[in-house]
Amino acid sequence: MRANVGDTIHVPTRVAGGRDAEGEIVEVWGEEGTPPYVVWFGDGREALLYPDPDCRIEPGDERGE
Which InterPro entries match (predicted)? Predict the structure, then answer.
């Protein structure tokens, strides 16, 4: 998995009835776009994320940024 600052990461929930999370990657700590990532979520949380294979990266330029 590789990402850039400004990309969106989609994190599926593992809780029945829960909501998937979506956040903006604000820092990439790994080499050449690899994890971990610092992610800002819309509810104001910021987290260091080591995404699992179920996560999906959406490049920022695909959203018109």
Answer: DUF1918 (IPR015035)
